[in-house]
Amino acid sequence: MSFPRIILSIAGLSVLFSFLASPTNCGQEKPKVYHFTLPCRTILKVDSTQGVDILDAAVCGTDTVTWQANGHTFCVFFKHDCPFADANDCKQIDNDHNKKGPVKASASPIVYDYGIVVDGKVFDPHIIGGG
Q: How far, in Å, CA of 77 to CA of 86, rounded?
């Protein structure tokens, strides 16, 4: 064997061994988890610019929610699921029936999409219940 062939063979084997010896990451990294807390809201102030003062209001399980009219005419309707323990509590929420609850308790937070009509304008806020 000639000298250049030996050098090339050694260099090739060195590169191969360096790839085999390099660390790999085959899903061994643990996922990062973030924890955050939201203050529980029981009073939502009706607003003519965005519907309510808090667009994504966290409501703790077993709390009662009150929509304060603040001089506005409003009506609330839930688009899919009802966040309250009694489903009838989602049927009529307006100036005259502004207090509903308690909220259903659950093991993890659930986002409830609802609409609110304030002085003829429709808005799309959310209630984050349970958890």
A: 15
Neighbours of 75 (CB within 10 A): 15
Q: What gap in Å lies between CA 111 and CA 83, rounded to an integer?
A: 9
The whole domain housing 93 covers: 43-130
In angstroms, the Cα distances linking 116 to 26, 83, 106 are 49, 15, 24
Residue 61 falls inside a structural domain: yes
CATH number of the domain that residue 104 is part of? 2.60.40
CA–CA separation, 18 vs 103, rounded Å?
60
In a domain, 28, yes or no: no
- Whether 43 contacts 101, CB under 8 Å: no
* Cut 0.85: pTM above it: no
- Does 100 reside within a domain? yes
The answer as to whether 15 is a domain residue is no
Question: What are the pLDDT tens digits along the chain (131 aa)?
Answer: 566 666 666 666 666 566 666 666 666 778 888 877 778 889 999 999 999 999 999 988 778 899 999 999 999 999 988 998 888 888 899 999 999 988 888 888 889 999 999 999 999 999 988 76
